[in-house]
Write a structure and sequence with these properties.
Distance between the termini: 26 Å
Bound molecules: (2~{S})-4-acetamido-2-azanyl-butanoic acid
Largest sheet: 8 strands, antiparallel
Structural class: mainly beta
Number of strands: 8
Shape: globular
Function: Catalyzes the circularization of gamma-N-acetyl-alpha,gamma-diaminobutyric acid (ADABA) to ectoine (1,4,5,6-tetrahydro-2-methyl-4-pyrimidine carboxylic acid), which is an excellent osmoprotectant.
CATH class: Mainly Beta
Number of domains: 1
GO molecular function: ectoine synthase activity
CATH superfamily: Jelly Rolls
Organism: Caenispirillum salinarum AK4
Strand content: over 45%
CATH topology: Jelly Rolls
Radius of gyration: 14 Å
Enzyme class: lyase
Protein name: L-ectoine synthase
Helix content: under 10%
Length: 132
Amino acid sequence: MIVRKLEELKGTDAEFKAAKGTWTSRRMLLARDKMGFSFHDTLIHAGTETYIHYANHLEAVYCVGGKGELQDLDNGVTYPLYDGVMYALNGHERHYLRAEEELRMICVFNPPLTGREDHDENGVYPLLTEED
Ligand SMILES: CC(=O)NCC[C@H](N)C(=O)O
């Protein structure tokens, strides 16, 4: 069994800040944990906009705090984000995340992230494995 506490991850390499500064992800379970998915507690910082395209991953996201919006660029629909809203990117949809107030998002990735991924200029995470 694995038991981890958010307070223990702070300041370690499991606390990953995006180079663009728009989000900070506390990556609680990673590929090295061999669960088949990774599990993150992510903060999307207030007043930011992030373009994302997970071409190599599936992601489910559950918002548990804050206020913002998700714009799906594939279907043109914008969805409000607040505590209790979940979305699943089951079609590798291109999207924007905008935070009016800091959003707290619980995220699951398949395949699991290794912990070193950041969005490239196209909003994509590379497909890394533990061996990379
Ligand atoms: C919701 C989302 O995709 N945020 C970007 C960061 C991501 N959750 C991560 O932890 O790498």
